[in-house]
Structure formats: structure tokens, C-alpha cells
Design a protein that fits this description.
194 residues
Length: 194
């Protein structure tokens, strides 16, 4: 049957869903001690940037080698999260629709920027110093924010509907699913630039 052939779209879709599932479970296990969250995030990005047939050993190797390199990104993520939460709380108290809209735009930009830090670090294979990484990620986010925002909004809508109604789906695909599509959009942007 053509549907189950190794070159078929169905087989490719099953392979992508399986990779998302395994990578998300590996991410949850590795990032369980919160300090390893940045290394686990970088390992998921590396798995999508440089796909290999095996998943477990490259994921563990990448997360171990990225542990110290990603700690500054994790500290930045933490401060971004705290800043975002306080800004969101302030926007909820103002009851201004315009300010709430600006807050959502800023928070999605901040989220996109945090993700792009890991993507750029993976792309450059750790050849950049931290200042250059933060700067190049900022400009990259500025240039491609309008194309990546759709993935972030769809992920937020998906989180909203699956958090209570289907928590198992949320836990199985919460990071790896949106990150796969986000990196696909970034890949298409790189192709468009060349």
C-alpha cells in the first residue's frame, strides 16, 4: 500500500509526531531539576536543527555539553519570565484594551527572543560570545517576528484548550510541537533570504 510506504506523507507525519513525542518526554525528564531547563531546551533545538536517526543518546549528549553554555540563557529566561508576569499583572489591572494589546505584542516578542537565543546558539555551534549572541538574536527576532508570531499565537490557543480538557496531549507535545513548527518557519525564512 502506498500510504504505508517509507516515502509516503503518512509515514513522514508519523515520524514527525513520534520525534515530537520522544523529544518532549526527554525534555520533561532532563529539565526536571529546574537548573537543567536551558540545556534541555538547547538539546531539543539541536535535535530539530541537526536531525539524527537516534534520539536518546544525541539528546543526552547535547544537553550535557550545553549545560554550562546555556546557564546564562536560563538566567535571562528567568528574568524575562518575571518581567513578563509583572507586566501581564499590571496590564490586567489597568483595564486598558490598548495597553493589554501592546503587552501581548511585547510578551510574544520576548518569548520569541528567548527561543531565538537557543536557535542562534545552536546555529552558530557556540562560536559566538554572549554579547554577540544576545545582539544577533535580538536583530534576528526583529527581522522575523512577524512570521513567527502565528506559531506562538496558535501554541497559546492550543495550550488554552488542552491544559484542562486534554492534559496528556499538553504534556506530550507542549514544547516540542510548537518548537518544531517555529523552527520550520525560521528555516523557510532563511531560505527566502538566500
Amino acid at each position: 500500500c502506498v500510504m504505508f510506504a517509507l516515502e509516503s506523507r503518512f509515514y513522514r507525519l508519523c515520524e514527525i509526531v513520534f520525534r515530537m513525542l520522544v523529544l518532549n518526554l526527554l525534555f520533561l525528564v532532563v529539565s526536571f531539576p529546574i537548573v537543567t531547563f536551558p540545556a534541555a531546551m538547547r538539546a531539543v533545538v539541536d535535535a530539530y536543527e541537526h536531525p539524527e536517526a537516534k534520539l536518546l543518546s544525541p539528546f543526552l549528549k547535547n544537553s550535557k555539553s550545553a549545560l554550562l553554555k546555556t546557564l546564562p540563557l536560563g538566567v535571562f529566561n528567568l528574568f524575562s519570565l518575571l518581567c513578563g508576569l509583572s507586566l501581564w499583572r499590571f496590564a490586567a489591572l489597568t483595564n486598558s484594551l490598548f495597553f493589554s494589546f501592546l503587552t501581548i505584542i511585547f510578551l510574544t516578542f520576548l518569548l520569541s527572543y528567548n527561543i531565538n537565543l537557543y536557535v542562534m546558539q545552536s546555529k552558530m555551534q557556540d562560536r559566538q560570545n554572549l554579547f554577540d549572541l544576545f545582539r544577533s538574536s535580538f536583530f534576528f527576532t526583529m527581522m522575523h517576528y512577524h512570521k513567527g508570531i502565528g506559531i506562538l499565537v496558535l501554541a497559546a490557543i492550543g495550550y488554552f484548550f488542552t491544559w484542562h480538557s486534554a492534559p496528556s496531549i499538553f504534556y506530550l507535545f507542549c514544547l516540542s510541537g510548537p518548537l518544531y513548527f517555529y523552527q520550520k518557519v525560521l528555516h523557510l525564512n532563511r531560505v527566502d533570504q538566500s
